[in-house]
Amino acid sequence: MSNRIADIRKNYSKKKLTEAKCATDPVKQFAKWWKQALSSEIEEVNAMTLATASPDGVPAARIVLLKDFSKAGFTFFTNYNSFKGQQLAENPKACLVFFWKELERQVRITGLIEKVDDQANDLYFHSRPVESQVGAVTSPQSQVIESREWLDGEYKKHKKELKGKKIDRPPHWGGYLVKPVIIEFWQGRPGRLHDRLQYTLQENGEWKMERLAP
């Protein structure tokens, strides 16, 4: 077996992606693929790359978890004061990427950012495990801290203070809705001749589907 990175290859051959079998609405098509991904028992099926950029175009990307989706868009939660929160405040646009290698599929969603309302934020926050709620209160996400020991100490302090109490959602913690304007579905095919179908939102609210060269 070669140890050269350039020699690492995989031949994709499980599925095809045709216009005839795709929904005319990309969110409906995502729901179809989502259901298939769930039934495939993919570990952390809701893990997705979130890409953001500063006003001068410097990109940043990290993995976050999808927590809901609907015709309105795709939702995730985080600390608004985090690095990604700062970039989204300065440049409210983002791109999400799902890669389900077990199905040889990728979905790329480009959209505009909108904060989730307080009622939905509170509802989701209080559905989380208590440990995660305490963690949200404790962590000054993305800020430089002095040590792991300091973080553990702050967590233990807050956990003791909040034991047996209803934990209020911190005002700096909540959700974002990515309102899609472009959604691309990618299906791996042999010979690197992959299927790529891109939906683009039109001014009249309809979606235009087009095939892209791989």
Name the features.
alpha+beta, 9-stranded antiparallel beta sheet, single chain, Pnp Oxidase, Chain A, 2 domains, 214 residues, 25% helix
Q: Main sheet?
A: 9 strands, antiparallel
Beta-strand content estimate: 25-35%
CATH fold-type name of the largest domain = Pnp Oxidase, Chain A
Radius of gyration, in Å, reads: 20 Å
Report on the structure:
- By secondary structure, the protein is of the alpha+beta class.
- The protein has two domains: 11-126 and 172-211, Pnp Oxidase, Chain A; 128-168, no CATH class.
- It has five helices and nine strands.
- The protein has helices at 26-39, 83-90, 118-125, 130-138, 148-162, and strands at 47-53, 59-65, 68-70, 73-79, 93-100, 105-115, 173-187, 195-201, 207-211.
- Strands 1, 2, 3, 4, 5, 6, 7, 8 and 9 form a nine-stranded antiparallel β-sheet that branches.
- It starts with 25 loop residues before the first helix and ends with a strand.
- The model has no long low-confidence stretch (mean pLDDT 96).
